[in-house]
Amino acid sequence: MTDLERLEEFLAEQIDRFAVGEKVTEGRIAGMAQDLADEGYDLESVKRAFKILRRTTDYFPTPKAVIELIGGSPEGNAETAWLTIVDAAAGGGAEYLSVYVYDRAMAYGIEAFIGIEGARGWPALCDFLELQTTPMIANAAKSFKSAYRKAVIGTAEPKSQYFLGLAEASNVTSSEQNAAWAVQTQKDGNLKPIPTSFLVLNTKSHGRLALHWDPLTMRLPETVLGELVAGDAETLRKYIPAPVPGETLAFPAPEDRAPPEDMARMWSGIRGLIGSGEVNDGQ
Q1: pTM of this prediction?
Q2: CA angle 12–18–20, rounded 5-degree value
Q3: 43-52, 60-69, 106-115, 250-259: lowest mean pLDDT where?
């Protein structure tokens, strides 16, 4: 079976998975498969797009809708980014994990979010998605997408793409106590790196990395932070504990990684964040 035939077979299987029944002819399926193949989209990319479309529309999509989700339009990427956040936040204990967000518009959308009683930051967003009603979450989605589009067109910029989870925010506010504990532990000869999980988000994917806090600072070592900011898949692959079957963690492609001037801005934002604990910490 050829790649094109496999793509046609997958599309035909999707017809009955949409709520509103409509006649989708073999010719339409064949044409859609050819359009997607001509654009260079493989079966895995199409599968990811349909996973999102089945949750967001009742109608079998047009090739344009699929292409926009895969290739990206501001509206399509905003929708995809929001669904990625919802999926990531649903993972057990997500509010405790610190987060690095590769999509700058996505980071601004999280940063602009205001939750229950004015709470902000990643933990506040996780709590909101867990506790609020569907209409409230729908309103939050609209606000997020509006903020996302502002960042895409350049009228807004995130302060940082690094967000503190509850665990690391607690380390920040207890820095003196941590320092005293570390000194005593060092004297006892028991000072070892402390395992921690870390969440990374991109427009279309998310995943957890197995990292270690520096026991003297209870923060990520600066070398590891540098690797996170650079976003090189080969470098970060060593931190992926166990791949989820059927999912890939999409780090930025080389051409999408931040230029040097943006890297400097990111570092400034991260250092300000972890130095004060006042930015993006959910407080």
Answers
A1: 0.61
A2: 115
A3: 250-259
